[in-house]
Amino acid sequence: MKKISIIFFFFILPLAFADLQLGFYASSCRKAESIVQKVVQKRFNRDKSITAALLRMHFHDCFVRGCDASLLIDSTKNNTSEKQTGANASVRGYDLIDDVKEAIEAACPSTVSCSDIIALATRDVVALSGGPKYNVPTGRRDGLVSNSVDANILPGPGSPIPQLTQFFAAKGITTEEMVTLLGAHTVGVAHCGFFSGRLSSVTGRPDPTMDPALDAKLVKLCKSNSNGAAFLDQNTSFVVDNAFYKQILLKKGIMQIDQQLALDKSTSTFVSNFASNGDKFVKSFASAMIKLGKVGVLVGKEGEIRKNCRAFNKRN
């Protein structure tokens, strides 16, 4: 299958973007972005599933307190952090962020934020997976708070579309952009616990919104292994493309939240447009990812630049 990508031109001079800048580290840490890219490339070469992991990490971080790397903080005896909450319990890729941070700290101590590392690493892995190449403005600062209760707002796999739309709108993201961002399910998997409630083996009757052949396949999978996992995109499972939309139009969405995108009147038109036009999807995905990356950012003297992404800096 032909991979479609769009390239945005890079500029030499930093350009302001909602208090962030393209080329923010051009003078303070010239090799920052190349270091990120090198570490991500090495991991991607041996683990294609890292794309889904970083996309999920980026989304879950930005949708709680904003893109401030609060998700990366480890719990302590005095505080249970965001990553310990149910919706975040299966987020992974923290070790990759650690590797990038260690390499950057060796070159430019206390200069590059963990939140910028997440955004840059996600950008790079999307491109490696055949998705769009896009610019990421940088200059984010790391947050000073990470509480598990804050992450309880994250939507679940069965969230109804009106509730989901409202959740995204609260972050300044339109319905079309929401549909675009959920296109990240073109990579990754869902474990049986996220979709078993739709299966005929559980409900006792076929789900009219699921293709019968898919239902039979998933029933068999989850019967043999209750913790089994299914690819959300069953055709091009490791490629960032528009195949996901084509499948949900055929009632082949694994999770309820995905299938409803194709059925709800407020979102179905966007699904059809992306399914029929792969170029439109990658362009829209690039724009939506850039917008996602500036949700609730800390800039200037706000927050801090962590030395260790898993812990707040020690106070004197």
From TrEMBL:
<feature type="disulfide bond">
    <location>
        <begin position="29"/>
        <end position="108"/>
    </location>
</feature>
<comment type="similarity">
    <text>Belongs to the peroxidase family. Ascorbate peroxidase subfamily.</text>
</comment>
<feature type="disulfide bond">
    <location>
        <begin position="114"/>
        <end position="309"/>
    </location>
</feature>
<dbReference type="InterPro" id="IPR019794">
    <property type="entry name" value="Peroxidases_AS"/>
</dbReference>
<dbReference type="GO" id="GO:0005576">
    <property type="term" value="C:extracellular region"/>
</dbReference>
<feature type="binding site">
    <location>
        <position position="64"/>
    </location>
    <ligand>
        <name>Ca(2+) 1</name>
    </ligand>
</feature>
<dbReference type="InterPro" id="IPR002016">
    <property type="entry name" value="Haem_peroxidase"/>
</dbReference>
<dbReference type="GO" id="GO:0042744">
    <property type="term" value="P:hydrogen peroxide catabolic process"/>
</dbReference>
<dbReference type="GO" id="GO:0046872">
    <property type="term" value="F:metal ion binding"/>
</dbReference>
<feature type="site" description="Transition state stabilizer">
    <location>
        <position position="56"/>
    </location>
</feature>
<keyword id="KW-0408">Iron</keyword>
<keyword id="KW-0106">Calcium</keyword>
<keyword id="KW-0575">Peroxidase</keyword>
<feature type="binding site">
    <location>
        <position position="233"/>
    </location>
    <ligand>
        <name>Ca(2+) 2</name>
    </ligand>
</feature>
<feature type="binding site">
    <location>
        <position position="241"/>
    </location>
    <ligand>
        <name>Ca(2+) 2</name>
    </ligand>
</feature>
<keyword id="KW-0349">Heme</keyword>
<dbReference type="InterPro" id="IPR033905">
    <property type="entry name" value="Secretory_peroxidase"/>
</dbReference>
<dbReference type="GO" id="GO:0140825">
    <property type="term" value="F:lactoperoxidase activity"/>
</dbReference>
<feature type="binding site">
    <location>
        <position position="82"/>
    </location>
    <ligand>
        <name>Ca(2+) 1</name>
    </ligand>
</feature>
<feature type="binding site">
    <location>
        <position position="68"/>
    </location>
    <ligand>
        <name>Ca(2+) 1</name>
    </ligand>
</feature>
<keyword id="KW-0560">Oxidoreductase</keyword>
<dbReference type="GO" id="GO:0006979">
    <property type="term" value="P:response to oxidative stress"/>
</dbReference>
<feature type="binding site">
    <location>
        <position position="155"/>
    </location>
    <ligand>
        <name>substrate</name>
    </ligand>
</feature>
<dbReference type="InterPro" id="IPR010255">
    <property type="entry name" value="Haem_peroxidase_sf"/>
</dbReference>
<keyword id="KW-0479">Metal-binding</keyword>
<feature type="binding site">
    <location>
        <position position="61"/>
    </location>
    <ligand>
        <name>Ca(2+) 1</name>
    </ligand>
</feature>
<dbReference type="InterPro" id="IPR019793">
    <property type="entry name" value="Peroxidases_heam-ligand_BS"/>
</dbReference>
<protein>
    <recommendedName>
        <fullName>Peroxidase</fullName>
        <ecNumber>1.11.1.7</ecNumber>
    </recommendedName>
</protein>
<keyword id="KW-0376">Hydrogen peroxide</keyword>
<feature type="binding site">
    <location>
        <position position="236"/>
    </location>
    <ligand>
        <name>Ca(2+) 2</name>
    </ligand>
</feature>
<dbReference type="Pfam" id="PF00141">
    <property type="entry name" value="peroxidase"/>
</dbReference>
<feature type="binding site" description="axial binding residue">
    <location>
        <position position="185"/>
    </location>
    <ligand>
        <name>heme b</name>
    </ligand>
</feature>
<feature type="binding site">
    <location>
        <position position="70"/>
    </location>
    <ligand>
        <name>Ca(2+) 1</name>
    </ligand>
</feature>
<feature type="binding site">
    <location>
        <position position="186"/>
    </location>
    <ligand>
        <name>Ca(2+) 2</name>
    </ligand>
</feature>
<feature type="domain" description="Plant heme peroxidase family profile">
    <location>
        <begin position="19"/>
        <end position="313"/>
    </location>
</feature>
<feature type="active site" description="Proton acceptor">
    <location>
        <position position="60"/>
    </location>
</feature>
<dbReference type="InterPro" id="IPR000823">
    <property type="entry name" value="Peroxidase_pln"/>
</dbReference>
<comment type="function">
    <text>Removal of H(2)O(2), oxidation of toxic reductants, biosynthesis and degradation of lignin, suberization, auxin catabolism, response to environmental stresses such as wounding, pathogen attack and oxidative stress. These functions might be dependent on each isozyme/isoform in each plant tissue.</text>
</comment>
<feature type="disulfide bond">
    <location>
        <begin position="192"/>
        <end position="222"/>
    </location>
</feature>
<keyword id="KW-1015">Disulfide bond</keyword>
<feature type="binding site">
    <location>
        <position position="66"/>
    </location>
    <ligand>
        <name>Ca(2+) 1</name>
    </ligand>
</feature>
<dbReference type="GO" id="GO:0020037">
    <property type="term" value="F:heme binding"/>
</dbReference>
